[in-house]
Amino acid sequence: MAYSDVTIVVDERDDLFYTRAALQAHQPGEGRITVQPTPASGSPAALAHDMLYALGKRLAPGLHSPDVWLDSVNAAWLAAAAWGVAMGVRHVVVLRAHLLTLRRIDQLLAWRELTGAQLTLLWQKPPRGLPPVLARAERCISGRDQFEALLAEPGPIPARPPFPPAPPMAGPAAVAVAAGQSPARQPRENRSASLKHGWPAPPCTGALATAQLVQAAPALEIAFEEAAALAALAHPLIAGALSVLAFTRAGLGSLRFTRDLDITGDVCAIKLHGVNHRYCPLHAVPAWARPLLAGARAHHRLTPHPPGDSVFAPVMSAEARHLRAHAGRLPRLGLSQPASALVP
User: Fold this and answer.
1) pTM of the model
2) 26: which of 283, 300, 318, 343 lies 20 to 30 Å off by Cα?
3) Crossing angle of the two packed helices 236-248 and 321-328, in degrees rounded to 10
4) SS3 letters for 208-224?
């Protein structure tokens, strides 16, 4: 475990200044978030839920919530790590760290190592109570000026999971896809019938290679409120999958075959696959959905899956009941599908 990016801020008098400064420093768009641990929560995944909340994600309430699988510690922290990587979080400040159990401190340190973010813990008790795992941190500060200077620092560049090799793009199609636009029309003698919207693409190639041959179908528009509701979903795979259904109106079954390499590096295009690859259209990804697909892809890459595996496979099992339950909570999008839509 590396501790060079772990800072302990000792505030043994519990000065309100430190809490206020930490809360004001919460700027997710700038890569810095402030986490407020839920006091006296006995849930094993409580701190991961607090992290998700700080990242702007909201768990569905209720005893039969479709987010019940995020009660699992590993699933919750993996979701928090995926969102942290996708959102480019560089610095995490945790309030009242002296109230955390050793187990939750270990979870925070493991999350930091997985995401590469800088971690700052406000220890609002005398430093003699620091556990050994935190006493080894390289930086321990106290004083208002030092804390303000720390919050003003740019955080480290987050660690990224290994990206699979992708074929280089060349020509006007590459420039167009990178800009999120449709490729320019090519001379008639160089175009094939597959350049028309919705026609089958060459089977099994990734999105980048396909974008050189096939024009991406434009994304369907949805209301701002619906896009915001999708962005607040806590699990990256649920948010990513439902966003694809929303802007493509494809069936649930089409998600079963979506691979990592079916999403371009800039998340501007996604390729869907039909049964036996008879119909594999390329779709443009709207700006609001790109962070959600980036979160789904980060989730996939943080687990030991090769690029050829399905990104959304974990939410397609058991007739996709978690996915369907969330779709049912967004009735205006009309994403609920019958069970037969999942049959390959």
Assistant:
1) 0.82
2) 300
3) 60
4) HHHHCCCCCECCCCCCH
